[in-house]
Write the structure tokens for this entry.
Amino acid sequence: LGDVYKRQSSGSLHYGCADKQGNIWLCSSVGAFCITLGFLPFEEITPPNPSMIRATFRDSDGRIWLSESDQQAVALYDPELTTCRYLTRSGKLSDHFTPFDAPIYCFGETDGGVIWLGGKPDGLFRLIPGKGDGFEVEHFVPTSDPYTAPASSNIYDLATDSSGRLWIATMGKGIETVSYTHLRAHETSQDL
């Protein structure tokens, strides 16, 4: 990287850090560089049905989740990428293409392997691992009580902080957080 950096710029290094995946990020006056050590640079995943992939996610078990948003489907690959199964709205996993019937924009995970799906206009889904390989699906839709459901059904991003809380970025209703098993409103500006 040093030789590449020297050849491409006369800029200086401003910042360096490592992320949770072990990548090293270097930021300079001419751009950002990512150094990935000990991993394949990428692995191609081709869904069985041609589709627009809106979101991807690797969970704590190493499985890959794909949102095929134009087909309103959620594909789940095993860690070796050898098996593709589809999540049904009831939480079962199908060996054949099955729509989830909601366009999913983002994924998240909290303690206990609980997977969260955020979508527009269908809001928030919580997937609790069940017996076997399926999930118990809970669907949260906006209500007047901010402690039982998110304020918006338009969810664009999910992130987990170091305390295990799930943060929900919405369109028009700000940011909210999930702590443990309850939703809790977070005071924000309506302009977020």
About this structure: The two ends are 38 Å apart (CA to CA). Residues 158 and 168 are 5 Å apart (CA to CA). DSSP finds one helix and 16 strands in the chain. The helical segments are 2-8.
